[in-house]
Amino acid sequence: MGIKFGTDGWRAIISQDFTFENVRIASQAVADHFKAKDVVFVVGYDWRFLSEKYAELAAEVLAGNGIKVLLSDKAVPTPLVSFAIKNKKLSGGLMLTASHNPPYYNGLKIKAPYAGTADEGITKSVEALLAKNPVQSVEFKKGIESGIIELVDLKKDYMKFARAYVDLKHLKNAKVNVLVDCMHGVGDGYIPEILKGTKIKITQIRTGRDPLFGGVNPEPIPKNLELPFRIMKDNKAKYDICIVNDGDADRIGAVIPGGRFMGAGQIMALLLLHFVEDRFWKGGVVKTVSNTTLIDLIAKKYNLKLYETPVGFKYICRLMLDEDILIGGEESGGIGVKDYMPERDGMLLGALLVEMIAHRKKGILEIIKDVEKEYGVFRYQRIDMDYLDEKKKKLMELLKTNPPKQVCGKVVKEIKSFDGYKFIMTDNSWLILRLSGTEPILRIYAEASSEKISKAYLDFGKNLALSM
Which of 187, 422, 386, 460 has its CA nearest to residue 311? Predict the structure, then answer.
């Protein structure tokens, strides 16, 4: 069937494995896992090709199994589905999206009763139930008429919460000029609405529905951001920051004046400082293995407990449920915050970045300069390689049995192997090689004190992979 749940849901190529029939089969397995008395599910969808139709099919199957369905009345960002679960105390949810994957993909994210990414216990159970029982469904119109499928507005309650979470009083008279790159994703219009009533000036680019996302993957990483780079390099534009959200708006990236990329690791580090130094909050910190060492240093300075997990927000989610977590995130753009829910939200994070700039009454470049002066310079880079299945096992076996003792002449002092292989050098710079959990690719990550060194690390990792 080609249905396999990775780090955050099932994603597949439209019409190849992501078909109407497979969406129905997957939805039936979800219904079989969650089926009980008085189960209520929320179903949302984004602007990808046919997402609204896939959502309708999923709603029909859930309803056919006696599950009450609250179906979004419009395309919405993923955080709104999770927020509805928490706010309305629902049994769970489904989101039809392939997140940041290429335009020819679609996907299905399962959201658990705790309003976060479904853990492996849920996804493995759902996988085991695939095609075990015949698909049961009700015709959509009949489901609406009977009330078992109800069209609902998910935006109103979310917006009320988001506007209360952000310090709008502090922002009321702040003059910050913000560029927002929506990447043709469904987050279009949300940040301006969250910050409505303030003097924050917001300009949006790459707006509106485009299932091809302008010809790039809707992922906020440098290779997809030629337009905001060009705008932010132009001194005449005078934007203080550019916030970028992915296709379903649960991830964030940024471009700073001069046209330099600011990744999620640096964003998370800055927001951690904002929470501790400006909001005076406390709590633990969670980072994935591929996130910046800067977070470790900040946590150490303020005596905050630090947790390190494999890549995948589901691991961060679990800790946010079990511990008092101030902030948790992964380098790919997913960050969760205290007093919210164990979920990512690129729109809220974007508003919080603006809040930090307004609070400190400094430009983002000056804020970064202050941080680098105290903690040092960290330059992170990543590349993704298409990688044949037959090479994957060989590469991982090589890294296990005969790992490099040096990388670009620097001695490896420590190896972490709980998600791919991370080689940490004596100066705390590092290189990671790991296989993606959602795509057939090899990811190579590096962080060092300069872009030149981190680029050399990437080349070292790439050559190692190509030698297989």
Answer: 422
Tell me whether domains 5-154 and 379-466 share a fold.
no
305 and 284 Cβ atoms separated by less than 8 Å? yes
Interatomic CA distance for residues 201 and 175, integer angstroms: 7
Residue-level pLDDT at 325:
98
> What ranges do the domains of the chain cover?
5-154, 166-375, 379-466
Q: How many CB atoms lie within 10 A of CB 268?
A: 30
What digits encode the pLDDT tens for the residues 166-224?
999 889 889 999 999 999 999 999 999 999 999 999 999 999 999 999 999 999 999 99
- Measured on CA atoms in the order 354, 358, 359, 361, is the torsion positive or negative? positive
Q: Which two tokens mark 75?
A: 């395309």
Q: What is the DSSP letter of 368?
A: H
Please give the Cα distance from 457 to 214 (Å, whole number): 31
Does residue 437 surpass a pLDDT of 70?
no
Q: What is the pLDDT of residues 260-304, one digit of tens each?
A: 999 999 999 999 999 999 999 999 999 999 999 999 999 999 999
- Count CA within 13 A, CB hemisphere, residue 226: 5
Q: Roughly what angle, to the nearest 10 degrees, separates helices 346-360 and 364-375?
A: 80
Phi (first) and psi of residue 243, to 5 degrees: -100, 135
The CA radius of gyration of the chain, in Å to the nearest whole number, is 22
The 10 Å Cβ neighbour count of residue 43 is 26
Strand partners, 254: 243, 262
User: Given this structure, which CATH class describes domain 5-154?
Assistant: alpha beta
CA distance 335 to 344: 5
Distance, in Å, from the CA atom of 97 to the CA atom of 78, rounded to the nearest integer, reads 8
Rounded-to-integer distance, Cα 238 and Cα 243, Å? 14
Nearest to 346, CA basis, from 120, 154, 114, 82: 82
Q: What is the mean pLDDT of residues 397-417?
A: 96
In words, the CATH class of domain 379-466 is alpha beta
The alpha carbon torsion through 231, 237, 239, 241 (nearest 10 deg) reads: 10
